[in-house]
From TrEMBL:
Transmembrane segments: none
Signal sequence region: none
Alphabetized GO MF terms: acyltransferase activity, transferring groups other than amino-acyl groups
Organism: Pseudoalteromonas citrea
Domain N-acetyltransferase: 1-127
Protein name as annotated: N-acetyltransferase domain-containing protein
Xref: Pfam families: Acetyltransf_7
InterPro entries per UniProt: Acyl_CoA_acyltransferase, GNAT_dom
Length: 135
């Protein structure tokens, strides 16, 4: 079966290697919480970034070979359940039902530092919605 772990900062390069293998945008750094799902290897990863007094979920990716098996749900449920701060994310519109199922709500107001990022992504023509889990 699969196991989910929050990596120690020293292991962050493993997440970046996984992302690079699949040409995923975004790079983890040692200040991020990097969560992974492992089988015999990393098959999914996500980052929780500290953004002032909130967390920002980003760079959620599942190896295409393991998609549609509940891997992302298992990874995110484990990572989100371990948090005590509000968690924001920018979800692609077609994934909004998935994030709603995890407990996220669509939001119209964002903290200023996230609002700027959201506006930049929208200018890049990304079809995204701002969402939050309130803790």
């Amino acid at each position: 079966m699969y196991s989910v772990h929050c990596l120690e900062p020293i292991s962050v390069p493993l997440v970046n290697k996984f992302y690079k293998q699949f040409s995923v945008r975004g790079r983890a750094n040692k200040q991020d919480q990097c969560w992974v799902t492992k089988s015999n290897k990393i098959i999914a990863a996500c980052r929780l970034q500290n953004k002032d007094d909130v967390l920002f979920l980003s760079t959620v990716f599942v190896d295409p070979e393991f998609r549609t098996q509940g891997v992302a749900r298992y990874l995110l449920k484990s990572a989100l359940d371990a948090q005590y701060s509000n968690i924001y994310t920018f979800a692609y519109r077609d994934l909004e039902p998935f994030y709603l199922g995890l407990g996220f709500e669509r939001v119209s107001a964002l903290p200023e530092h996230l609002s700027c990022c959201f506006a930049n992504y929208v200018r890049q023509k990304r079809d995204i919605v701002a969402m939050c889990i309130y803790k």
